[in-house]
Amino acid sequence: MDYQRFGRTGLRVSRLGLGCGGFGGVGSEPSLAGRGEDEAAAFAIMDRALELGITYFDTADSYGGGRSEEMIGRWLRARGTRDQVVLSTKVFNRTGPGPNDAGLSRRHVMRAVEDSLRRLQTDWLDLYVTHEDDPETPLDETLRALDDLVHQGKVRYVGASNIEAWRLTRALWISDRLGLARYDGVQNEYNLLHRGIEAEVLPLAADQGLAVTPFSPLAGGFLTGKYALDAEHPPGSRMTLRPEPYADLMTRPTFRAIDALRAEAAEWGVSMGALALAWVHRHPRVTAAIIGPRSRAQFEVAVESLQVTLTPEDRDSIVSRMEAARA
Catalytic positions, please? Predict the structure, then answer.
């Protein structure tokens, strides 16, 4: 494992980050709370991650209805590993029934961070991330609240997820104009089937020195070849639990592109998943790719990907082959 600077900061994170959205649930979907990995499985996954040198752990207050943070907190306490981990959590999604139990208002942010610290059994967060944008709250209100948390020592750095380039640009301008802590990282989806951040977000990150930590680098498992268009999904897979985020991929052109990736991987002598993951984390602007293994065995693809070195020309060639098959 190698480690890279988190944007323009002095913080260093592992090239792969551990996504903990499956601990005690399936992401932020309330109806699936309790359907994810149980505590024993979560502990085994975190143990394996640390064995491999993965020190960047990513979660959110809404994952599993708070269960993800609770499991991480108990693991940190049981293993005594708080100082070894770069701990990131997020705020935005609903955490209660009240009108102020969601969003990025000062009230919700200040309450949510205290709840996250309690569940995670820590006094500080290395990274605090706004999970979505909140058009109901002025950006300067959110940024002032985050700045206060940094000055209070409860948060070291702040980042944004699922954010458009124009809104991120505006947030950076507000922070610079008002002298507030600015976003140091951006976490949007990026993989061979969803490349939207290439147009504006990646150039902005390069210009502003932001860390880029993409989630879903394997497109929910599609890029491992585990799904087929006219076959039942594997039991317990994401497509059986929460298919909505990937509904746009269930098309014949997509599966032709996946077949092209399969052929490309065979020529490289590696698995499809390893090649697809390497394609993400070998991008010169990507700081760390967030992976979400659901067992110790699923780390094998990640380990294999670290042995794959791709030049910019290699990355372009893979895209061209898949796009040609998709057309």
Answer: 63
Please, which residues bridge with residue 187 across strands?
161
Distance of alpha carbon 232 from alpha carbon 240, whole angstroms:
9
Which phi and psi angles does 158 have, rounded to 5°?
-125, 150
pTM (two decimals)? 0.95
What's the mean per-residue pLDDT of the chain?
95
- Side-chain-side CA neighbours of 293 within 13 Å: the count stands at 26
Q: How far apart are CA 196 and CA 200, in angstroms?
A: 8
Cβ–Cβ < 8 Å for 155, 113: yes
Token output for 295: 């067992």
What are all long-range contacts of 233-242, with beta carbons under 8 Å and residues at least 24 apart?
238/26, 241/26, 241/32, 241/35, 242/26, 242/27, 242/29, 242/32
pLDDT reported for residue 230 = 81
Percent of the residues in the chain that have a pLDDT greater than 90, as a whole number: 89
> Pairing relation of β-strands 3-5 and 12-14?
antiparallel
